[in-house]
Every structure is written in structure tokens, then in C-alpha cells.
Amino acid sequence: MRQNSTAPRNNKLKPSSNLIMNGSVRVRVIRTLLAIQNGQSLSSVLDPLLNSLHDGDKGFAHALLLTTLRQWHALARLLDSLADNPVDEIEVRTTIQVGLVQLLYLEVADHAAIHETVEAAKEIEFAHSTGLVNAILRKVAKNPSKFRKKCDKKHSLPNWLAYQLKQDWSEQYDELTQGLRQPAPMFLRVNSAVTSVEDYQHALDGAEIDADIVELTTGFKVANSSESAAATLSTKGLRLHQSTAVNALPDFALGTASVQDMHAQLAAPIINKALMAKLSAEKSDTNNEIHILDACAAPGGKLAHWLELMSASDESSLFHVKQDNNGMSSETSPAITDIKVTAIDNEAPRIERIRENLQRLNLSQHDLKQAEKSIALNIVCADATRWQHGKNKKAATNEPVFDAILLDSPCTATGVIRRHPDISILRTEEDIEQTALLQADILHNLWPQLKAGGYLLYVTCSILKQENVEQMQDFITHHNDAVVIEFTEDCNWGIEQAIGRQCLPIDSASGDGFYYALLQKTAE
């Protein structure tokens, strides 16, 4: 999934892009926040910040940075209400907001929060603002509960995004906008080719790490020659009671588990089950080669999950069993002999990250070759809006070669704001339209490369309908050979849409905001 960093546009308060990691902890956090406002993503600046600090300061810096980002827009409104005159200098605004977070959310002692924040203003060479910084923070320190309530009363989103969520999710609006201000839980995906979720939970218990099993059930209608039947599947993951460093997780380095949001763990099982349904519907007595595509694959979590399912020894493996008309196991004989997997993404560093993740999970091409199962993996750096399978193919001559496509589409990533609170700063209203156009270009390019009878699973981590259900409605309008596969009432996740289902980050599973739509291609 591609998440482009988009710098704020039309912002007269644009800071320097230089990220200098020296000075006090608060100064380093302030400079990091300035870099984010200048367009750098949290993921690109967080490690430099933490790596520049002593171990004893890292926890405070992390909490200060993430909490400030989560409460950013609410703090900005509070600041504007406290200042007698507009505060236009972005460095000064950022410094005051860092001070407010300490008083309202981190319970730092008043004298320490005020004194150190005033000193930070001096250190970043804005000594002329110390009187203003001191006055505002002292006013808040006199009655922090009052100002905390004022800050928490409404959303902490840019107004354009809050307005759009009100339009899209009026019934869930209040809970949704408050939920986006909270930290997200940590989930683990257990490698089913190695161990079970239950056994790994026991291993976590042994390491004194508490975790609950979360089980999501999915049902969808599959098309057969003369009837429609329901395919069902269960997806299990682990939700940790407290976030934990990965190096503390049992056998993490050996590939036994991966960090992946619970709602993201739905993607691979759904497209894998749909592919099984396709093989069953064809009722072929020969064991044919199949070819599948993971588009916009980086950082590789969903690709790895799919490869794990293929490599498992249970009914989720395409090698394990043939399927009956309901998509269920019918006999213990190989369904296929060869699987070709193509994964594409358009940025070389992200391609490298895919390779690193697969290597840790023992799913690199070398590992797959050593296994008894024949899985050929090809990872390609390419633009999904133009890429064609095979060499020198033009859009007008592309051929249907794929039996299944997993499209983890680029999006505004509004569904993962809890994990990446910088999104609420980096995204703009114009990004929605631009992203929707990009999504449409990718869909229109990939769809002709899907075989008749094949499935495409469209996934985003957005909670905006323009990128999700409205995108699918537009696509269906322009493609007569696209059939929507309906999710059934068996699903215990998400909200039913006109097409597909929408997970919100307030669902019972506590997962992030994800959208899923499953399409099948018919013969024209």
C-alpha cells in the first residue's frame, strides 16, 4: 500500500525543512514536529529522533511527539482561543502546543513543563516569544481540567476532514472522530505455516505478554456454473494488551509472527478463498499453473500473509485440497502444481522492504524454491497505472494472465490516523480527488489483465467513501464484465455498503479503518 507524503499546500507558515537533532528533548520534539509540518512523514523522522536520545529520554520523547500529533488540531484551536492576538509564527505555535500537551495529557509537573518549554523557545532562537509562551502555559496550568475538557470536547482533525466524515458517517461521527485521537492496539499475525494462533498465545504467556485471540468471520457469495453458494472463512489474530517491542516477542526474528492490524489480516484470506472458489468452479481434472498479482505490495504484509497461507499444510493452502462447489474441502489431492506470484510497487526502497520482510519470514524466492511446493515469486518495481505483465506490452495489447489480483490501493490512509497521526497534518482536501483519480487509473490498467472468472480484491485503509464504495460504483458503471461478489451476513466485521464492507477504527475488534470490495470478471 502506497502512502504518499503530501506537504501542506498554501500554508504561509512553512518552516525550514532542516531536521537538526540536538538540544533538549523538547527542542528535538519541536524540530521533529516542524519537519512533519514541512511535509516529512512521521515514519521518516521518528527513528532519527529516538536514535538521537539516551534510552532514558526515548519514552518521554515518543509520548510527547505522538500525543501532540494526536491532539494537534484541538490544541491549535485552544491556542487560538487563549492568545489575545493571532500567533502566526509556526515555530512559536508548535512550541506552545508541545507545552500544552505536557500540562493537559502527560501530567508533567507545572513548573517543569513551563520552564523547559520556555527554555526550548530560547533554544530554537525564538526568545522574543518567551513571554507569550509563559503566559499561555501559566493560564492553562491554573485549571488544567477545564482546558482539557475544552480540548477534548470536539474533534482533533482538520475541519475539511471532519466535515467529510460527518457527510460519510453521520451516525458514527462523534465516536469516530474521538476514536481517531486514541492510540491503536498492537496486533500480531501468526504464521500458520509454522504454528497456530493458540500455540503462539501460549508462547506469549510464557514471555509474560498478555494477548487476546480475535476471530473475524467472513462470508461471501461465490458464483458457480448454475448457482451461487456461500464461502466462509475464519481469520484469527492476537491483540496485545500493551504494545511491546518486537524483539521481546517469542521467535519473532524466526518469522513466527508479524505485526499487522487485525482488519488488514482479512485481505489475504479473502482473496485466497476466492481463488479456491474459482478453481472449484472450473472443475478441471488437470492440475494447472495459476498466476496471481499483488499490486502496490509494499511493505509486503498482505503478500507475506498470502504466501503463508499457500505454504501452510491445512485447508488454506492451494496445494492441499480441491474444493467442492461451496468452496469447502472435498478431497486430499493437489489442486494445482505451480503458482506464479508477481508483486509490484513503484518505489525501490519499498521494494527492498518487501524483500526484507519476506526474508525474515522465510518466504524469499530462495526459501520458496527449497520448499516442496512450487511457488515462483517475482517482485517488480513498476508503476501500477502503466505496468503490463510481460515485456514491451502497451495498454491496448495487455492480455488476461492473472487468476486473482490483490489491489491494496493507494489512498489517503485516513483509516490509520491512530497509528500515523501525522496524516491529519499532511493530507489536504485536494488529495482526496487526486488519490481517487490515481486509484481509477490503476484499476483500469489492471482489470484487463485479469482472466475471465478471476477475482480482484480492492482494499484501502481509508474511511472516505470517495476512495471506497464510490470508487467501486464508478468502476462497475464503466466495466460491464465486473460483477460484485456480495459479503453475507456471516461477516462479523465492518459495515455493509452498496458495494463491499467498511471497517471503521471503532469496530469491536479495535482494528483500523479498512475497506474491502471483491469483484469477479465475467466473459464478455
Helix content: 25-40%
Mean pLDDT over the residues: 89
Sheet of most strands: 9 strands, mixed
The separation of the N and C termini measures 30 Å
- Oligomer description: single chain
Short description:
39% of the residues lie in helices and 18% in strands. The chain has helices at 25-37, 42-51, 55-70, 72-82, 90-104, 110-123, 130-142, 144-152, 159-168, 173-179, 197-206, 267-282, 301-311, 348-360, 365-370, 423-426, 429-446, 469-478; strands at 187-190, 211-223, 228-240, 257-259, 289-295, 322-323, 329-331, 338-345, 374-381, 402-408, 450-460, 482-485, 495-496, 501-502, 515-521.
Question: Which descriptors apply to this entry?
Answer:
9-stranded mixed beta sheet; single chain; 18% strand; 524 residues; 18 helices
Give the SSE map.
Blueprint: H1 25-37, H2 42-51, H3 55-70, H4 72-82, H5 90-104, H6 110-123, H7 130-142, H8 144-152, H9 159-168, H10 173-179, E1 187-190, H11 197-206, E2 211-223, E3 228-240, E4 257-259, H12 267-282, E5 289-295, H13 301-311, E6 322-323, E7 329-331, E8 338-345, H14 348-360, H15 365-370, E9 374-381, E10 402-408, H16 423-426, H17 429-446, E11 450-460, H18 469-478, E12 482-485, E13 495-496, E14 501-502, E15 515-521
Parallel strand pairs: 5-8, 5-10, 8-9, 10-11
Antiparallel strand pairs: 1-3, 1-4, 2-3, 6-7, 11-15, 12-15, 13-14, 14-15
Helix pairs in contact: 1-2, 1-3, 1-5, 2-3, 3-5, 4-5, 4-8, 5-6, 5-7, 6-7, 12-13
